Amino acid sequence: MQNSRVIALVAALSALAPAFTPALAAETAPAVIDNERVKVFDTTSAMTAMPDDFVAISFAGGNAVFGHAGETAGANGARTVVIDLKNHPVPTLANNSGYPNAFPRPHIEKLLENDRVIVWRYRWNLGEPTPVHFHNTDVVVTYLEDSALQSTTPDGKSVVNDYKSGDIRFNKGNRVHTELLVRGSASAVITELK
After folding, report:
1. Is residue 115 a part of any domain in this protein?
2. Can you give the three-state secondary structure of 48-100, one letter per residue?
3. Residue 17 falls within a domain, yes or no?
4. Considering the domain boundaries, does residue 183 fall inside one?
5. Cα dist. 13→50, 110, 133 in Å?
6. The domain spanning residue 144 has which CATH number?
7. Separation of alpha carbons 159 and 93, rounded Å
8. pLDDT number for residue 154
9. Predicted confidence (pLDDT) per residue in 100-118, tens digit
10. What single-letter DSSP state applies at residue 164?
11. Which of 59, 102, 106, 170 has the fewest CB atoms found within 10 Å of its own CB?
12. Which domain holds residue 156?
């Protein structure tokens, strides 16, 4: 009689386990960014049963794939930035700045686009400033190389930002600036959130 109760309890708990799997799987790596729009992970382990749609960016080649809730993001042994796209859409900002949007512009390689994101790879060239541009969306930037980028706003204010390979940043939209690589080389994968 005792064994049958234990077996029934184990069976009942096993039936509940799939309901908890997505939340537990997504927490196997610590989040490096967590806000109302995204939860971002830098991992070398596969993340199974993602709770939301996601973008997975591979450091080997800077490629990106889009995945759906319930699918696996990344692979064991491969460094991957996983951007969990929370269900908190923000309308794209109207561009009244008089400058073009950040995307598209010269030297961009579009990796993917759908109703949730535009993901593109960009390489800055030493001494060649980007066009002055407006960011009409929030973005997640994954730096693939050590980078020294000077950002200058239309009023002439400049700041040099030093990034390391693997740095990940979340930037809010509604910004206007130009960027200039001041030393070394620089490339990144930019994920624009729709």
Report:
1. yes
2. CCCCCCEEEEECCCCCEEEECCCCCECECCECEEEEEECCCCCCCCCCCCCCC
3. no
4. yes
5. 21, 45, 54
6. 2.60.120.10
7. 25
8. 95
9. 999 998 889 999 999 999 9
10. -
11. 106
12. 108-193
Amino acid letter, 108? I
Residues with Cβ within 8 Å of residue 46, at least 6 apart in sequence: 72, 73, 74, 75, 76
CB 183 within 8 Å of CB 148: yes
Residue owning tokens 């060649």? 128
The DSSP secondary-structure symbol of 157 reads -
> What are the C-alpha distances in Å from 187 to residues 35, 150, 161, 167, 190?
25, 14, 14, 11, 10
SS3 188: strand
| Contact between residue 39 and residue 73 where contact means Cβ atoms under 8 Å apart | no
Q: How far, in Å, CA of 13 to CA of 116, rounded?
A: 36
> What is the reported pLDDT for 106?
87
Closest CA to 141 of 34, 40, 61: 40
Strand partners, 80: 43, 58
